Amino acid sequence: MAMSPMEQFEVRPIVPLHIGSYDVSFTNQALFMCIVVAAVSLFLTLAVSRGRLVPTRAQSMAEISYEFVANMIKSTTGDDGMVFFPFVFAIFMFVLFSNFMGLIPGAFTVTSQIAVTFALAAVVILTVVVVGFIRHGFGFLKLFVPKAPFLLLLLLVPIEIISFLTRLVSLSVRLFANMLAGHTMLQVFASFVVALGAAGGILSVLSITPMFMIVFIGALEMLVAFLQAYVFAILTCIYLNEALHLHEHH
Amino acid sequence: MPSPEPDDLKRLAERIDEAERKHAQRKNPPPPTSLGIAFRFATEMVSALVVGGGLGWGIDWAFDHWSHLQTRPWGMVVMFVLGAAAGIRNVMAAAKELNAEMAAKDVEK
After folding, report:
1. ipTM
2. Cβ–Cβ of A166/B30 closer than 8 Å?
3. CA A179, A182, A188, A194: dihedral to nearest 10 degrees?
4. How many separate domains does chain A show?
5. Quick one: which of A95, A117, A156, B44 has the fewest CB in 10 Å?
């Protein structure tokens, strides 16, 4: 039972599959991503299938999540950012459900894999670049040119470009590291319970203390699960806002 | 079902108003913890270094691969330093943002 705390993050193939030299096996990770997508779609469609004036509990949860994201977009990008509502909402719900589903004992946490979070961040940054070029043409490149004398620009433009690309890493690492750290911590404390319980005598009685810790960390993880989904979504909005309204950048 | 009394409706309206006011106050997310702030600064700095170093490494690799110029290790050296500069810039921007946020919170109180 007391396994390595990192074992929960191991990606295992369920249906081995190879195309050419590439390993495209259906893994536990892929399975849980499918589950998350199915859960989000089911929850949202079932909750609003019978739209009532006085909402049921499920319906008001769906409405609250809609309003939450809509307000987030309106307050960061203004009304013209609402075009991106489906994009931001999809990202928010996916991350939120992955984070919460990972808290179910035995479940696999999709967002604890850097490959997943990096892919999400890459989609966000690519969208920002594409939207920027569509909106402003090559004027989008002004984003990388601060007001400075020409000689300094030789130094500052590369710095700005690196600083822009940094978002790709910081966006993905923030989500991934938070999930990884939280789940590792839970597993470590859980292994203390088992180890102390097996030690016998007074130590067995003491095994109740890490159990309390797990309760507290579990509560904290719920907060982190929501907060990280929120942070991911709001940063997406902020980056989109920069692509939409260049002038606000300095 | 008997029709509701006007008084009942008025009281209900008052309760809804109050609930909405409370909801509006609570809407802001909780303030970041010290650990959260420290973690944020660390990611900003480290990811800038990673991106800078990675880009430099890529440039060196590209020159090595597709031309006869020997840039190694200068691409990586230069880009790593620029990455450090970008990281410091990012951390300062993040700190400025946090300061403004906290000042706004203090005014509210």
Report:
1. 0.76
2. no
3. -100
4. 1
5. A156
